[in-house]
Amino acid sequence: MQFQSILRVHFLWIPLLATTYKLLAFSSMTFDTPLSTIATIKQPTLAKLERMDLSTVRDLLYHFPFRYEDYSAIHTIDSLVPEEKCTIVGTITKIEAGRTWKKKLFLTEVTLADDTGQIRLIWFNQRFIAQSLEIGITIRVSGKVTRDQKGLVMQSPAFERSSRDATHTGRLVPIYPETAGLTSKFFRWQLSGIFTKLTEFPDPIPEDILKQLHLPSLKQALFSIHFPKDIEHEQIARKRFAFDEMLCVQLKALQVKALFETARATPLPFDERVVKKFISTLPFTFTDAQRKASFEILKDMERPQPMNRLLNGDVGSGKTVVAALAAFVAAEHTCQVAILAPTEVLARQHFESLSRLFADTGHGVTLFTGSYRILDGKTTTRPTLLKAIAAGIPRIIVGTHALLQEDVAFEKLALIVVDEQHRFGVSQRARLQELSFNSTDGSRELVPHFLSMTATPIPRTLTLAFFGNLDLSILDELPKNRKPIITRIGSTARDREKIYELIRSEIAKGRQAFVIFPLVEESLALKDVKAAIAEHQHLTETVFPNLNIGLIHGRMKAKEKEVMMRDFKEKKYDILVATAVVEVGIDVPNATLILIEEAERFGLAQLHQFRGRVGRGEHQSYCFLFPHQHSASTESSGEQAGKKSGEYNERLKVLEKSTSGFEIAEADLALRGPGAFFGTRQSGMPDITMENLTNLKLITIARDEAKNILMADPLLIKHPLLKTGLQKFEERIHFE
Ligand code: ADP
Ligand code: MG
Prior knowledge:
Elements: H1 2-27, H2 45-51, H3 57-61, E1 67-70, E2 74-75, E3 85-99, E4 106-114, E5 117-124, H4 128-132, E6 138-148, E7 151-155, E8 158-161, E9 172-175, H5 184-197, H6 207-213, H7 218-226, H8 231-262, H9 272-280, H10 288-302, E10 308-313, H11 319-332, E11 336-340, H12 344-357, E12 365-368, E13 373-375, E14 378-379, H13 382-390, E15 396-399, E16 413-419, H14 426-436, E17 449-454, H15 460-466, E18 471-475, E19 486-489, H16 493-508, E20 512-516, H17 526-543, E21 549-552, H18 558-569, E22 575-578, E23 591-597, H19 604-611, E24 622-626, H20 638-644, H21 646-657, H22 661-678, H23 680-683, H24 687-690, H25 696-712, H26 720-732
Parallel strand pairs: 2-3, 5-7, 10-17, 10-18, 11-15, 11-16, 12-15, 16-17, 19-24, 20-22, 20-23, 21-22, 23-24
Antiparallel strand pairs: 1-9, 3-4, 3-6, 4-5, 6-7, 6-8, 12-13, 13-14
Bound molecules: adenosine-5'-diphosphate and magnesium ion.
């Protein structure tokens, strides 16, 4: 009874509140004021804004310019240069308006004069312009100058009376993403209105943090991003928003981490005898780094909470065997393990190397990809394999995203290992997360332990930013038996001859070589595939007529690639010409030489990956990098070519000097920025955050601050602004 009446009272309040809210909206503006209540915005503009997902004042304030035109300097008319953008101030001496001689366009032509000369301004089909101008008034005009038969002219420039404050001209003018027919001018006009009416700018970031980082308040930052006094103000505003985003990233990461803490997993106690049993089957001893990482992983797996760890290791550092040990421990506990690779070739290779590693352990390895299904060493059908997996029969299952399909059910999945997780698509990663919350009935009963592996040594700032929810194990040490790979940058045709000579002598000694041709986007670049095919032909016919040369490229079917890789491994070919498909993980210990053409097209981290294809056995290995001008097809005189390559060489030299993937990654990040490092599309990060990913201080402070905030207030009850901010952030960003 009582409860109902309370309810009724509550309901009574709702219309009342709504009315008050509307009144408030009219009298004063807030972030939440709907754009539909702003008098100067009418249909059909509202509908256009709606289509851009802009419905409140907040949305408009966070609709940032993507660049600025610098119209801050005022030019005199005699100093104007055609094709340049500029701002001039002058008096109108003539206005002509009417249809053009072809009667198609309505033309407004204005003559503007200052002390140094005159210029024509023209607009097409904008009748209102003639009405808003008169002879004798002084206006400020910004735009691009061109020259036609009659002299200097500006077409459709922005203008305003010079007595007004500069909004559209004479300053750093913001340019907005203009979709749905809304112009930058519209946004500038509305936003300047909003800034005069808005009184409250509720700031989610506490003042002391802003002070500590020398960042502006929300109000100041919003103003500076739309109407920057100068470029410094604009940049500091961007930094402030990057911090906001990074704080959200960190809050989210820590929340996910906390969520994993509350989940339950199958504890897999680690028994020294079991570990020794596995290690004793290996033909080598673990490096210290491998030992430490294995210990961290096995310790995690002992706990009744799911492990959530990233194994970040340099190429050739031996991640596979570390993952294999974890898989072995789980399998010995009669549990299932799923090992996922981003491509069929890599899945196949993991399958083969794991089959070898497990040969003496009594555990079979199963393969499940789009094209291959192997159980107990025999090819089988999909339904048979699905049934077996659901019955818990195969324990160690290697596969691609095919393993993530809805109808794949495990009986007792206790560990998921994902190789190169960032190469999986967004929806696959989402499914992975679902799978890791192994909820057949939504009860989230037992969550598998989760081990992510990456062969891209990731700089510290990026691990914090992208993988903040994961614990980290690092393999920064190569097995002792490795000789450092000798790396050289080729710069002349003579260099190329010498390299070809070295390839011949290595092959005479029984070794093999890779020749890499760039393939930037695996499925798209037909041109690159053609280049690789042409190079293959050139090498076969002209350079190495006596050798067997294979070819592998991204346009080949998985089966064909597979066969080619296997044949190369089995030494049916001396040289393998390849596009970037051999980038990650391919293991051919007998290959000792790699020649990378058009090396400047790749990032350093990627080149380091390629280089890691050699030096995997006991023989001395070599890596040669050739920038574009010197590739075989475009032979040029040595001297000229040598000069041109100077600019690339600076960057490539990092590889000559360093063999540490972590060092190279840091250099790559500094040189090319995080967008190039990971690929913006893959990261799912907003641009503004990407720009700041090299800023370790900003990231660590965001991390620490997120920790402090959540420690005191895990549900963000006392931080309502942050909570809404985080929700808005999640709507925009897909988080791993
Ligand atoms: P990556 O970390 O690049 O995936 P892999 O796991 O493929 O490296 O290992 C590279 C090669 O090194 C493999 O042939 C593997 O058998 C070998 N290997 C791994 N660990 C050691 C070690 N401790 N000592 C010697 N060789 C090792
Ligand atoms: Mg590997």
